[in-house]
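Budget justification note: compute hours in this period were largely spent on complex prediction jobs such as the one shown. Inputs:
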Amino acid sequence: MKTADVASTNGTEPATQPRGAKTAGAVANWADERLGLGTAMKKQLRKVFPDHWSFMLGEIALWSFVILLLTGVFLTLFFDPSMAEVQYDGSYDPLRGVYMSRAMASTLEISFDVRGGLLMRQMHHWAAMIFIAAMMIHLLRVYFTGAFRKPREINWIIGCLLLLLGTIEGFTGYSLPDDLLSGTGVRAADGFMKASPVVGTYMSFFLFGGEFPGDQIIPRLYAMHILLIPGILLALIAAHMLLLVYHKHTQWPGPGRTEENVVGYPLLPVYMAKAGGFFFIVFGMIALLGGLFTLNPVWKFGPYDPSKVTAGSQPDWYMGWPDGLLRIIPAWETHIFGVTLSWNIMLPILVMPPLMIGVLAALPFIESWITGDKREHHLLQRPRNAPTRTAVMVALMTFYGLSWAAGGNDIIAIKMHLSINQITYFMRGAVIIGPIIAFIIARRWCISLQRHDENKLLHGYETGVLVRSPQGGYAEKHLPISEAEAYRLTARDREEVYVPDSTADASGVAAPGGKRAEITNKVRGKLSELMYADNVQKPTAEELHEAQHHSEHELHELEHQIASGPNKHGPSSDH
Amino acid sequence: MTDAHDNHDDTGHGGDGAPEEPIANPGLPAHTWRPTDVDPKSEKRAEIQVAALFGLSAVCTILFVVSYFTYDIGDNWSVIGGVGASTVALGATLGLALLFIGVAIIQWARKIMGDHEITELRHPAASPEEDRETTLEALKIGIEETGIARRPLIRNSALGALGLLGLPAVVLLRDLGELPGDKLEHTIWGQGGRKLTIVEDGKEKTVVVPKMRISRDAIGTPILASDLEIGDLVNAQPEVLFNPERYYVEPNEVHGHHLQVHKSKASLILLRMDPADITPGKGREDWDVQGIVAYSKICTHVGCPISLNERTTHHLLCPCHQSTFDLADSGRVVFGPAGRPLPQLPIEVDEQGYLVAQSDFTEPVGPSYWERDYDRDRFGEGD
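Corresponding output:
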């Protein structure tokens, strides 16, 4: 490459110092003399961020949170979180004259009497849905690529907390308009609280300021929604980002990309521009959604009335899966010693969601305990190269998906003309059997993909060129893959199944730590076998060499056949 | 190769890869120039593209301001797709203005800004051994100087005092709400038929409050038994919510959020069926009036109002979680997650032929809770 060809403005040294650079320098100097930022920014300004489309998923979550803050502040200027009763007399005629809470009336005012109010409301709601969806997909990306491994476990836990808090934040916000649909959700939440053992009714009476629904719940949810939870979210997001900067972003293995370095574009200007530009894209998409697609039309539901309900009541999508479990749980209630234990509420609502978050948070630690791997990892893994790990998440996703679908069992029944009872019975079995099947399929699928990779590495890729030999047999021509591609396929660790120290058993001397340690080691050995034993390990240099030699020979043979065979005008002329 | 980053290649695995590595790290591929780097024409084109995108954004922003002042949402809230012209116009212009900026910046970054990948070395997350030792030493000295290890009296009293401070945090929450008491066991239906001592003209007088009439929901008219035909389903409320004076109840008590509290427990479903269809529960033989039965409308699962009636089977379905109750058979759960039958309200007719409640519900309505003593309330054994 001749540098002379490089266009003038992209030359390494401009002819004259541009005016912008001078001003920037002056500003930087002014700030440094007061804040001493020079040292801190020395490395950060050109900090390297690797590039990959999947690294943008977390960004969607981050930017939608920023949009939530911006639109949320606008909404607080008009929303009145009061349950005092008023008679509506705003612009929306169908509800004029109806008695409702001020919360509902001010929501209608925002929607119909404040210009841009409905846009902001809908953007806020869309951003909330996207915030949670993006967090979940980001979590999946991090998990499937092994980005949660040391040293990033704490950031993984922070992420799980963000997901939990984001969901609660969503629920509190969704409840604020005090409309019929969200009120039904709050009523269910009251039922959930009352089902808690011992303290249930007290929790309910304290939260609602007396008997449901009382006149306190909206202002209290409001305080949580605009102050308490966003404050914690903000702090956790800040911690999440700081750890990201400190650990430096993970990267995909590839030529020149190792565990010891990070290759990519500098923060200033490219990454800043891309991330900043992406903020505007997310913002723009949410504005379009907010302007063009209605969601949560509270004016159609009307104000909350405890004696009314609409058919097809559904919570926001992220609450769907516990709601689905709540629908398919059998009618289990225990009445004993004069008290009631409502398993039909406790299991789906008070046990399952916290358990799910707990399992998610524990995954990195369980894995590192089984593998015994205490090294730092900065190179990502392809999901197929960790078949059992991938299958665990696929099983969890299947459980989630089936539960979520069960949350729409009435919709499925109506749309597909099925019996709701049958759907419910089916789902009861499916949420248990489905994940097991999904685990097995996903694991085997990953292993076949590994075999496919190995084939590519050893025998080259399939060219799609079929060759007929003089004897009439057909063979497909394989060509070796590029060196970069081959390196990418082999840039992963060799795995070893953990075998518990069995010498103790032979000599009759208890292993250090006694019986318990022995059992733990045995369990660990079994799990390690499940995790690694069936995986395809990358070939050794020798094996690769031999295979390449062999396929070269085969190729040669094939070329020879083509040259001497009937199909002289075959694909060999390509070379 | 003139690119500075290529010097970093050797720091990776490339040269000194472990022997069993089948393929040595080939190192970073050479940088390839983009058309905009080498072709001034294409560079100029990219520059114009980016500027044009920013320009389009500015146009959209101006259109946003114009729409803000042009459309009056109050009058045309349903013009376009039920959202209103103002909302659609504001959303579209704002969205496009933002999108154009985003696309412009990214185009700028991709086509014009330098695209040299650079390499940075990583460092272990842990601090250097030396720093760690120094810190541990400082920590040790600091803790030693407090004397906390040698003075358990101070340590324990300090921990005790600090721990006790959790108490005010808990106690302060006490006034969040009143205690449940027995509130969940009663509804406003119980206000009918009670005896009351009132002071009238300076004299104490005992009155018997009339039995609570069953009124139609929303309009509030009391229901005559003869109003209902077989198969009719009526959403009902106690008449006191519409006519509190008749039951000696303060009007404030059935207004605003008090009304909501009462409705959340007292809402009723009335259904008239062929008396021959009814299998009355033990002790419930006289709870219906000529085939008219009254059940709580509040689901015993998590408290949704139940609304979907299957006419032929007398089954009532909760739209929230699909618990299904058989109104011909004491509200028995025939399907779904609800753990208990729907509470039945014993009814009769008063002298004018209006349907009235014989008493309050004989068990708590709505979702289960810990203190709810099921055995005490179960029909056939209760009362």
